[in-house]
Amino acid sequence: MSESSSLPDRWLKAEIVGKISAGLLIPIVILIAGAWFTRQQEEVADARRNSDRVAQLLTHLASEEPQERILAIQALSYHQAIHDMPPEIVESLVTTAATDDVNVAAAAITVLGTEKQPEIERQRLLLELLGPMMIHFDRTRSSFEVWSGRTTFLATGVIHDSNKAVRSLLINKAELIPQDLVMDAIALVEHYDAWLLEYKRVQREQDTPYVFVGPQGFPFPKDSEKRFRERYDQLVQR
């Protein structure tokens, strides 16, 4: 038999082998696909369980009891050792470390590690000093803008409260003031000292239109306020 006459036989054998191979491969492919799908389902279920677990821990982290918050942080630390900590949880712990009770903050710092210390300090500066200062700066600015003869005493009262609050923040949170803003803080405190003394002196005089200490040599240090605002904006953007 010639080689050309054997081609149909080889094609037939190839077709038979192909069908047999296909018949064998289909169950294998189904098995592999089934295993992959099962693994995917298990991963989704595991992720859901982890999510539920973290959500429950966050509920405890919001507790009014410091000890319960500490236990929640410790549980989150155990969770972190097994699974990656979501960025949102890390941010929550940074805020806790920056603003919470001393013992709770210490627990959060332990979990976060020393590499997060600069971020914790920035949060403290923003939340405990600069944020409240901006609120009072805005209050006094608004009072100046709405000032009129009819609302003089109301505006002066608001300015008094905010001036007193900013002075208290700068004194009581002095350890948070960045080194390059120390002289600006001193300038603000000097102005507030003079202003509050003048306010106390003239508050008995009902016809006093406004408390002003610029002529006495203590004008409001606008440049110092500007530099504090700029630092606040930088931290918020970061």
Provide a descriptive summary of the structure in words.
This protein has 238 residues and is an all-alpha fold. The protein folds into 2 domains: 4-112, no CATH class; 119-237. Helix content is 77%, strand content 0%. The chain is built from 8 helices and no strands. Helix 3 runs antiparallel to helix 4 and helix 6 (152-172) packs across helix 7. The mean pLDDT is 74.
Number of domains: 2
Amino- and carboxy-terminal Cα gap:
85 Å
Order of helices and strands: HHHHHHHH
Query: What's the mean pLDDT score?
Result: 74
Please give the radius of gyration in angstroms.
Answer: 34 Å
Helix count from the secondary structure assignment? 8
Spatial shape: elongated
As a percent range, the share of strand residues is: under 5%
What percent of residues adopt helix (DSSP H or I)?
Answer: over 70%
What is the subunit organization of this protein?
Answer: single chain
Pairing-aware structural class of the strands and helices? Answer: mainly alpha
Low-confidence stretches: none
Q: What's the total number of strands?
A: 0
User: How many strands, what sense, and barrel or not for the largest sheet?
Assistant: none
